[in-house]
Amino acid sequence: MKSLTKVLTSLLLTVIIAFGSFNTHANSSPINSIDQPQASSSGLQPQILPDQTIESPVITITYKSIVEIANKTQCILRPVGVYNKSLEWPLGDIGSLRLVAERFNSDSFSFASNYRVDCGIGKEKRNLQFSTSLDAQGNKKINIGVINQNGNQPAKSTWDKMADPSDKSLLNHPFGVNAFIRQKDQTSIWLFEVVEK
């Protein structure tokens, strides 16, 4: 992206310089080609040459909130229900041994999800619920659940029981789920970690 910006900026400056030169010299005699940059009649050197690359400033976007799920199992986590109090649950399937995240800048949100731990045909299925909240006053909450049922109700039930920002840990044998809220610079991170016990 940075090199594309450089190319576009360079092209734009070339066009501007070319048209500026055309307007200045439209009724004058032809310009002799030169190999070296020369001073203009005013004695000033041009600041930018047509083939010169220009450094663009680096733009950093800081997100207020990140929801992350770390799947440290050999199974796939598949969403099978949600509860969206405000905004929508941002994550979908989470592959084996993957960390997925969604970043956003909303001032408030509140939602929960219900995931099925899918280890393949013939394997017993387990469900895990993840719930997050940030209110307009900046109060953060997190919760987890282990209700072995598909649908939206387990997500809503976990959301209903969400009370504080403290770390949580539950077991739904053979899986464990941990939940934390961490701060990194100006970003709050809601992290859910699923492990095999």
Helices and strands in order:
Layout: H1 2-25, E1 65-72, E2 76-86, E3 98-104, E4 109-118, E5 126-134, E6 140-145, H2 153-160, E7 168-172, E8 175-184, E9 187-196
Parallel strand pairs: 1-9
Antiparallel strand pairs: 1-3, 2-4, 4-5, 5-6, 7-8, 8-9
Folded structure, characterized:
The protein is an alpha+beta fold. 16% of the residues lie in helices and 39% in strands. The strands form 2 sheets. A 5-stranded mixed sheet has the order 3-1-9-8-7, with no helix packed on it. A 4-stranded antiparallel sheet has the order 2-4-5-6. The longest helix has 24 residues, at 2-25.
Keywords:
197 residues; alpha+beta; 5-stranded mixed sheet; 4-stranded antiparallel sheet
Count of individual helical segments: 2
Rg over CA atoms, rounded to whole Å, is: 28 Å
Query: How many β-strand runs?
Result: 9
Structural class: alpha+beta
- End-to-end Cα distance, whole Å, is 43 Å
Strand content: 35-45%
Residue-averaged pLDDT, rounded?
A: 79
Contiguous low-pLDDT stretches (5 residues minimum) are: 15-46
How would you summarize what this structure contains?
The chain has 197 residues and is an alpha+beta fold. It has two helices and nine strands; from the N terminus they run αββββββαβββ.
